[in-house]
Design goal:
By secondary structure, the chain is α/β, with parallel strands linked by helices. Helix content is 39%, strand content 14%. Strands 1, 2, 5, 6, 7, 8, 9, 10 and 11 form a 9-stranded mixed β-sheet that branches. Helix 2 packs antiparallel against helix 3. It is globular.
Amino acid sequence: MPPRPPSYNKAVALVLQGGGALGSYQAGVYEVLAESPYLPEWVAGISIGAINAALIAGNAPAQRVARLRQFWEGITAPSACWPGWLGLLGGNRWGDLSQPGAAAATLFGQPGFFTPRQPAEWLGSPGPNSFYDTSPLRETLERLVDFDRINARETRLSVGAVNIRTGNVIYFDNASTIIRPEHIMASGALPPAFPPVEIDGEHYWDGGLVSNTPLSYLLESVPHCSHLAFQVDLFPARGPLPTTLAEAAEREKDIRYSSRTRAASDIGRLQQDLRVNINALWTQLPAALRATPEAQYLYDFGAPSTMDIVQLIYRPDRPQGGTKDFEFSRATMQARWAQGRADALATLQAAPWLAPMAAEEGARTFDVLRPEG
């Protein structure tokens, strides 16, 4: 891959979208970044992206890929109640819910991640507020993530969750908050499968209910600092016309989650372009005009910083059905990890962000592997 020239001095951020079992693609992307001159200084995530982000920020750089692999191999281990050889089939060969990996997750949960509620729990009144118990995830996080390291702020970590009472997204950021396992769990508490997580008297659900990408938080938090952001998305916006129910369910989910990501990217790029052009215009204004309240308002919004947003999007080469985000078979996990590696390598080899930036540009987006049409 091309070397990183000293003149390209933007801070590096890694932005990880939610997507359940699809998250092993993000691990493959990070494995390549860890070997490159673009080691992230800030990792932001939602849902499974928050878990991957914690595994990255909560370990020394030399241990991060190993910890990611421990997590993904652990949660994709075959259930004792399910024949292991069925998990090798993976893919979409048996249709939607009958996919072996998705069926096993639905019936038995995933080791080190979540387990079904016990039948006795449904006999009481009121019954449970979720289908699964996520206490195994807490144990996994406590074993694989060094929260003291996270709170020492060696790498910035931000994870998004939704306050159930207000309906607003909140970001737990180690720049201002002591991060504990429950902050990571709250970001991935997708209802009705997973229960809400209580933190300091408030209850939270998965941040993907409102926005499945933390890109907008990154852009709003550091408008005066230039960044190279690798945004790893797990749902593609583009796709073929579905011909089966399973394909329709998959396409609906792709559109629902990717549209939020595209909206955040488009708005962020527009805001950054405005900041740069306001900053350039300010230098041309006479002193009397600069002193007006209107000009001062614009000055506060302007910034000379620029943003390069590099999109890496998981685009499987065949339909995977509407249950792909809880299809946790080991073979499928490994295939997604390998695709993340391959896509990251191709993107870093192209390195389009090293091209000169136009003076009027505040932000650029790159998708090296975007299909034509």
